[in-house]
Amino acid sequence: METTLDPARLEAAIGKTFGELGVSVTGPLIVLGDRLGLWAALAGAGPTTPADLAARTGLNERYLREWLRAVCVAGYLDYDPAAEAFTLTDEMAAVLATDSSPTSLIGVFAGFEALWADLPRIEDFFRTGAGMGWGDHHPAMAGSQERFTRPMYAAGLATAWLPAVEGAAQRLAAGGSLLDAGCGRGVASLIIAEAYPLARVTGIDVDDAAIAYARKCAAEAGLAGRVTFEVADAAAIPNGPYDVVMFSDSLHDLGDPVSAIAAAGRALVPGGALLLVEPLAADRFEDDFTNPYARIGYAISTMACLPSGVAQAGPAQLGAMAGEAKLREILAAGGFTDVRRIVTPTAPFNILLEGRL
Fold this sequence. Notes:
By secondary structure, this protein is an alpha/beta fold. Helices cover 49% and strands 15% of the residues. It folds into 2 domains: 7-98, Arc Repressor Mutant, subunit A (Orthogonal Bundle), CATH 1.10.10; 113-356, Rossmann fold (3-Layer(aba) Sandwich), CATH 3.40.50. It has a 7-stranded mixed β-sheet, with helices on both faces. Strands 1-2 form a two-stranded antiparallel sheet. The longest helix has 29 residues, at 7-35. The protein is globular and about 70 Å long.
């Protein structure tokens, strides 16, 4: 039976797909700009010609001209036809030119290499129902995740999120202890240790390579005496008790989140607190169409977060976009019935929950 296509809807479908192709092929150019130092060279420089950029970077002018035009038509640079010069605005520089900006997103793009490299394995999971841990991904994944989370954590974790948890900042400032469950490469643990010089911080993760990297970073920062990283499962938390137990974008990666939350409760001192940091998601899928993070969240969940939970063979695989209501269910099942949402402008793409036993 022939299908009659609606011309307007067909045109819209082509336009949508063609636009996505443009976005996709621009990704490697964004990474090139980062690796070659082009974004940094353009930041604050004002109108710049290809010759100017070549003189500033020592790179080939012809390739730079093509790159400048490519990222310009993609919307990342302004262009002055009279001067044949390109300008990176200060606002775009805050997103692309440095890792120190709280709005930096440049680190995410390099992770696309991992997503494409891992695609055959992910494809097979759809047939077999198997999974893989974060440590089993292409090496680019870990570095991309670190660079993506660091600016957000640096902007708010120690200065806004923990202080919003009743008594947490005071306890840490006085020499209290914190456990970072599912710490990955230790970004959050080290930020907290630097902000609270008397606090004792322990990070745990099942990925031994990530723990080795975290230990190296702690040593380089001179924090090895106060920050400990251990290979351990979140459901078997070591060396308590702790004043604060934190899950920083990690609970949804676990196969048995309820057991991990229950273990956190057993590891807390009386009056201690749980801080749960999770991606921003609506309770109903239809409400995520207006969520600016949802497109990224569901994609990464499909490619990395869900496979992580499946690989651990637990009773639940949340995926990254569980939503507050489901997170509250998990906390209650683990013993935390007193739960409060923390709202702060420093966490625009996260759900922050404070839990008490």
